[in-house]
Amino acid sequence: MKKSLGAKTITYPTPVFVVGTYDSKGKPNAMTAAWGGICCSVPPCIAISLRKATYTYHSIMDSKAFTISIPSEDQVKEADYFGIASGKDVDKFQATGLTPVKSKVVNAPYVGEFPFILECELQQSVKIGLHTQFIGEIKDIKVDESLISDDESLIKKIKPLIYSPDNQSYYGVGELVGKAFSAGRQFKL
User: Fold this and answer.
1) How far apart are CA 12 and CA 23, in angstroms?
2) Which of 4, 52, 112, 174 is spaced 20 to 30 A from 153 at the CA atom?
3) Which segments does the entry list as coiled coil (predicted)?
């Protein structure tokens, strides 16, 4: 038997995305967002949803670009800070000691120390209740060279954070449990 939890914003996994932008004066900023994911294959696109009240919302509207930096498990404190402080009030990069790196592809910075980066050009925005969904075309992906090899999956090397909305906590990625497009072949007629 299932128990109803009501209409809530809970799904699994929920990513930890650190969204990088420049404000109207060119100041780099980053904020943590969990409402997002891949939304199109061709062209490759990702969507993030932000409230209009955020500093990042206005920066994306102005610059028409953003980056997504994916932190590792060992960067949980910095990722959390990017989500609890406002770039309107503080320089988050200075506070954390992390480096804003200017993208050569889009008009937005990314977090230099984070291992996986998506550089995105805004394609459209859609107002959905309290949030606006920003759909960005992925123009490039950058990954730390030291993580690229054939011997182990990139996800195990990056060790990306996952957010649990039900208890507002961060988790790591678990072990491999099956291969996509083959684990379920036994049911194919």
Assistant:
1) 32
2) 112
3) none
